[in-house]
User: Fold this.
Amino acid sequence: MEIPIKKNEEYIVEIIDNGYEGEGIAKIDGFTIFINGAIKGEKCKILILKVTTSHAFAKIVEIIEKSPYRVESDCGTYKRCGGCSLRHIEYDETLNMKQRMVENLVRKTFSENNIKVLPTLGMGNPYNYRNKAQFPVGLDKENKPVMGVFAQRTHEIIPMRNCLIQNYYSEQIANFVFGFIKQKEISVYNEQTGKGLVRHIVIKVGVRTHEIMCILVINGKGFKEEKQLAEAVIKEFPEVKTVVKNINMKNTNVILGQENEVIYGDGFIYDVLGEYTFKISPMSFYQVNPVQAEALYYTALEKAELSKDDILFDLYCGIGTIGIFASKYVKKVYGIEIVEQAIEDAKENARINKIDNIEFFAGDVEKVFDKLMKEKQAFPDVVIVDPPRRGLDGNTIQTLLALEPKKVVYISCNPATLVRDMKLLEEKFEVKEIQPVDMFPFTSHVENVSILKLK
Ligand SMILES: C[S@@+](CC[C@H](N)C(=O)[O-])C[C@H]1O[C@@H](n2cnc3c(N)ncnc32)[C@H](O)[C@@H]1O
Assistant:
């Protein structure tokens, strides 16, 4: 196919859709162009920035016809930050977009399509919903220490002001810690050279308990002012229950290293979800939007129609939240999770909440699921899976196909892998509907729940 457009040329296009990252999509003679910040229904003058053999990227030069859903972004860092890519769109419309995005994936994957994608479950107040903030620390272009957010698609750190999705406390505490670091001239990490100490400031907030954890990710074993820093933080913010240093000396994009040392407090915090209390450690996964996590769990459990005779497996169970929510509706729950510390927390969570029909096991689902069933001679009636973005591995798909549980409750933070796995499980399981849940308002991400019923 001859490419009908040229780099650095301007064109006028109609935006026919929005893509998986919220970008506008236009076509010129069938050739696809992705345009950051453009909304379906708009007419724009665009400048072509990059052309590949199959598609091109462009930026808006002028919006000739505006979408009725376009709003002025209310965030000062929005234009450069890679966080919220939908902040220029009315919130209710972002929910419609997320529903359409899942519908598109379903339509592309299933030729005979009887799967209904329900309207996205949105938030009443989609602001300051995140309970975990991870602020990178480094050097700016003038070699001065900077803390903030990564600029879109780069590793340049830009300072942030009043982030509208983070909990109010997170930014205040991180600013305070960063102020201390600058004042004491503690070195900050330089990604290019691998030198310098402070890499990230991570804040976890128990939104219901008001308990806060402050984690300092450092490229070293410690620094002499660490006790003084912890004392200053807890004096200023008594809600901070623990200060932990996380040692990460690897040249990697992964934020946390494997080693944690408590500087102050117990090294963990508690939060409350639904009627349960959960212990949260530095390394364990905990849903970042607790309001929507409750909505997600209740929706999943309602749709799962569990029964008192059911044996339930909660795969990728984190600190045991879903399994604990489900425990009162079933006979027995088994949870599997790869992070040992999360399993320690899950066991403690079962104890705190006085739940005695649940057991947790540390290990890779791919290897442990089958083994555990055989060892325990326990075979699930219902399996809940909540994998990371990459979805299920081939082994687990085969195990589910061979096992034939009545239902698989698939919770997913990546609709592309959800739909891929639904297709792989189609031989034995049918899906009637998918429920998108807006776990990450104003970002392009969407969580989904779907119930796969044995045919
Ligand atoms: C999306 S989180 C879900 C956690 C939990 N269900 C919840 O709602 O909080 C995915 C979890 O899978 C775990 N995980 C990732 N790969 C795994 C694997 N191969 N086997 C077991 N667990 C894994 C992660 O550590 C993380 O806790």
Remarks:
- The pocket of S-adenosylmethionine is lined by residues 285, 287, 316-318, 321-322, 336-339, 342, 364-366, 386-388, 413 (CB under 6 Å).
- The chain has three domains: 10-65, 116-122+285-454, 132-273.
- The mean pLDDT is 95.
- DSSP finds nine helices and 24 strands in the chain.
